[in-house]
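Late entry, evening session. Most of the bench is empty. Finally got around to the prediction I had been postponing all week. Sequence below, unchanged from the version circulated by S.P.
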Amino acid sequence: MQTLGPLRPRFTGLLKRPWLTRTFNLRALSSASDYSDQSRGGLPRFFSETLPSSKGGVIRVEGDEFWHMTKVLRLKTDDRVDLFNGKGGLVEGFIQNIDRAAIDFVALEDPKLVLPQTPQWHVFAAFGSLKGGRADWLVEKCTELGASSVTPLLTERSSNISDNRVERLQRVILAAAKQCQRLHEMKLNHSMKIDNLVPLVAKSKLSFIAIAEATPLVSVLTSTTKEPSGLIIVGPEGDFTEKEVNMIKQAGATPVGLGPHRLRVETATIAILATLMLWSDAQKMINP
């Protein structure tokens, strides 16, 4: 699948702090049980672009994460915490020192690298016109459920997304990643028109488009083969136009239904993603 460039700022830009640049070796963990064990630890977890290179290594944590540690959670010297870098890196350590601008974090172990889970689900949803925090909710839940990326779709009935939403949505993603303790950041891509989506669908072996009265998603999955990645496509309020649906279907997307009721954009998106994540987990048990 074609790589989509994520928006800036991402986690790093949001926190606006100068990080030490170090090269470090990570011990890889690849099994599903390893991922579960390492992504659901009991210690408070904070984001850091840079991790200590080895056990005993020290880095400074500043900015928003420093504020969260000391002013919100009121952590103190010698308290233990985890740091993650949004790319699968994770290390446990403790707070060695607190000053007015930062804390000094000391690693109690070598950093670990937890590999991403498959398949990687990429969400394309026309949520640019949603109001009242509904877009925030969609992005938050996609992060919690494990989507690899979210791309706002531009359609005839949802033709734009406000630029001032970008930083807010990035903050939603970071907060959700910390809350659910996922180790790989979810990318928020630049908005995309249907014409640019079609080639991605054509290259993907696994793509689903939500369409009213189509074959139920669960029924479709009984004859679906697991692939390394897949696309989830959801239209705007008022749905795709007939022309847009035909373009996406002709490119290779499979129409799927979500029951007898008319669903909001965010509801349909989460219903498909949650079902596919559960199906993916079941496939791992059948074909480990």
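Two things to note before I forget:
The CA atoms of residues 148 and 265 lie 19 Å apart.
Residues 1-5, 14-25, 27-39 have pLDDT under 50 and may be disordered.
Will write this up properly tomorrow.
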